[in-house]
Each structure stands twice: as C-alpha cells, then as structure tokens.
Recover the amino acids of this structure.
C-alpha cells in the first residue's frame, strides 16, 4: 500500500510518499519547506504568513514529484486538524485537487495521530510492542497516551471517531489510543521557545537551548523547581510548564534588579538547568505512567523528542529499570522508541502518510 501525504498544519510545508509491504513502513520520498526563517523576525509563527507561504511552496514541492509517482499511490493522506485553519486549508484543497485529477480517494488525518505513530517510520510494525505509553511533546501540545490493541471493536479502523461513552479514546486501525495526560497551560516546546526568547535567542528555542546547555553545567544559583502536579479527578497526569517559564523570568528579573549582568557562561548554565528540570519532569511522568499501566514500550514523539538530552536521560532510566533483578527474572523489560530520524520528530508529511496506511490497510 502506498500513499502521497500532505502536511501543512503549522510552519512546515511537507510532502511524503510512504509505502507498507506488510512488514516495514518505508519513506520513499520526503520533501519539505521549513518557514522558520520567515517567522523568526516575529519570534513565533504568524498565521497569515504561514498560509501564504504554504500556498507558494506547496506548488514548488509538487514539481519535485513525478506524475507517474502520484499515479502509483492508492490514496492521498492530508492533515485535517488540529492546526492553523488558514494553513490546513492549503493542504486540504491541494489534496482534493490531486484526488480529483488522479482519481484517488483523500483520507483526512489527525496531526497528533501522525506524531504518535511517527515512531514506526522506517521500522517494522512488529517493533512496536503493546501496551505503549507515549509522550507527544511539541510547541503546541504536551500529552500522554496509552496505546493498546483494539480487540474486535465495531469502531475498528474508523479513525478519529471517539469511542462511545469513553472520553478521549480513539482508534487507528488495530490500535486503541487513550489520552491519559495533558498540560494545564504551556506545552514543553513552548517553554523552550519562551525561555530561549528571554535569553535573547531565536525561534524556535528548543534547538538553541539544547545547544547552549552543552556548554552549561550544574549551578545551584540557577536551580529550578520540578513541577510535579497530582493527577486530575479523572486520573489523568497533569503537566504545567508556564511555572517553569515564570521561574526563569523571575530569576532574570531578580538579577537585573540587583544590577548583575549575565555572562555567556551564566546563559549556558541557565539553559542547562532549565533543560534538566523540564526533561526530568517529562521523564518522571512517562516512567510513572509506564509502571502504572505495565507497558512494554515507552515512547517519545513531537518536536521535543529531537532533544538529545531527553533521549539520553530516558535511555539511562529505562536501562536502570531493565537491570533490576525482579524485572529481568519476570521478563518485564521495557523498550524505548523514538523517531528514527530528527526530521520525523518535527512536523512532516511522512507521519501523516503512515497513519493513512494504518487506517486503510488494517481496516481492509
Ligand atoms: O512538532 P513540531 O515541529 O511542531 C509543533 O507541532 O509544534 O515541534 C516544534 C517544537 C518547538 O517548540 C521547538 O522549540 C521544539 O519542538 N523543539 C525542541 C527541540 N527541537 C525542536 N525542544 C527541545 N529540544 C530540541 N532539540
Ligand atoms: Zn506537530
């Protein structure tokens, strides 16, 4: 099964051709235009500029795909929501046009489902052992999901429909996805972006902060409190990152009032301490949820999963867990999955195509 996929939900215009041979999800083609430099002067994504650039760039990108390649696909996948309305409409109308021209059905895909299953790009389907707990963390969302096998449900394969009576549960092909955690305010990627701005860095902040943190070191003067909230009344894990951002703002303000300037080393140390606090918070919740639900896999996706330190920290924690006597004896080791390439962590068309295939293939 093969699909042409289109992603235009935010500031990346991305087209992918994805295929599945019954075993592996292959990325045959992935071409993209990142709008970062056009949005940088404004310190964030400007919706009006985003939609205008999508309509300009999507035509240019389409010129890099042969008509013969489009003729070979079984259907077209396109991000339908969530995202910036003016940007989504560019992708959706392009998909409709191509569908009409090449007589291919158009499948609308949820962007978050794309992030969740981005871990399967260039992997075998059997690499994903269920149940799995997954953190999707980016500039716009910061959620925890429990993914289990969907057994003989009439809902199977219907995609983004919520199961009757069960809030926050959806099915994709044979997978049942339950949301078990969310943020009360900012997303973790948003916190990286805001803190980078406070430290005089550009948008997006994640790559810059993680670079600065490499030069930084533990510094008790800049220690930040880990914000670990109790669950909500329905038992969902809660995150809060606006408090993290406020701690940095408060620290910078205090130093300014005291007439202390920030050296390059101070900035690196603040980046280091902020990154450690944010990562420990994310990892703590993932590990806790994994234990609670007895999952076989812990996974990361979304822009923040491109953070090397987060991946390193979680790998170590999971390794330590797997080394415990009891765990070894009872064959309860946990696998760790994150996207095979950094381009699959941030917004991309390939992940949208993969969900299109999961929905169509495993429902046929
Ligand atoms: O998934 P994505 O491309 O777009 C959204 O759906 O938001 O994620 C972008 C976000 C930004 O907030 C960016 O700062 C963050 O992911 N990000 C990172 C890193 N690379 C990107 N955060 C932390 N460390 C990184 N290396
Ligand atoms: Zn995204």
């Amino acid at each position: 099964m093969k699909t042409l996929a289109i992603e235009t939900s935010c500031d990346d215009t991305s087209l992918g051709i994805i295929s599945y041979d019954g075993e592996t999800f292959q990325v045959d083609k992935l071409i993209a235009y990142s709008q970062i430099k056009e949005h940088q002067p404004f310190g964030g994504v400007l919706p009006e500029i985003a939609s205008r650039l999508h309509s300009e760039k999507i035509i240019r990108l389409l010129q890099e795909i042969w008509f013969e390649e489009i003729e070979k696909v079984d259907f077209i996948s396109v991000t339908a929501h969530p995202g910036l309305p003016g940007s989504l409409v560019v992708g959706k109308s392009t998909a409709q046009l191509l569908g009409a021209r090449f007589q291919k059905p158009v499948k609308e895909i949820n962007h978050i489902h794309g992030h969740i299953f981005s871990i399967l790009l260039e992997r075998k389907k059997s690499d994903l052992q269920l149940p799995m707990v997954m953190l999707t963390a980016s500039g716009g969302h910061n959620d925890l999901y429990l993914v289990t096998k969907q057994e003989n449900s009439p809902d199977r394969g219907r995609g983004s429909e919520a199961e009757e009576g069960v809030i926050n549960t959806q099915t994709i092909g044979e997978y049942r996805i339950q949301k078990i955690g969310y943020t009360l305010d900012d997303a973790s990627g948003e916190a990286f972006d805001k803190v980078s701005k406070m430290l005089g860095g550009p948008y997006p902040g994640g790559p810059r902060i993680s670079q600065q943190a490499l030069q930084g070191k533990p510094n008790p003067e800049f220690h930040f409190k880990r914000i670990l909230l109790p669950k909500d009344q329905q038992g969902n894990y809660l995150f809060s990152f606006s408090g993290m951002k406020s701690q940095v703002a408060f620290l910078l303000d205090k130093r300014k009032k005291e007439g202390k300037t920030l050296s390059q080393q101070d900035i690196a140390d603040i980046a280091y301490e902020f990154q450690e606090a944010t990562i420990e918070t994310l990892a703590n919740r993932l590990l806790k949820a994994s234990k609670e639900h007895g999952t076989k896999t812990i996974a990361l996706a979304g822009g923040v999963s491109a953070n090397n330190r987060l991946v390193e920290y979680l790998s170590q924690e999971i390794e330590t867990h797997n080394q415990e006597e009891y765990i070894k004896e009872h064959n309860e080791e946990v696998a760790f999955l994150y996207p095979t390439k950094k381009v699959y962590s941030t917004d991309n068309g390939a992940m949208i195509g993969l969900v299109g295939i999961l929905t169509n293939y495993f429902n046929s």
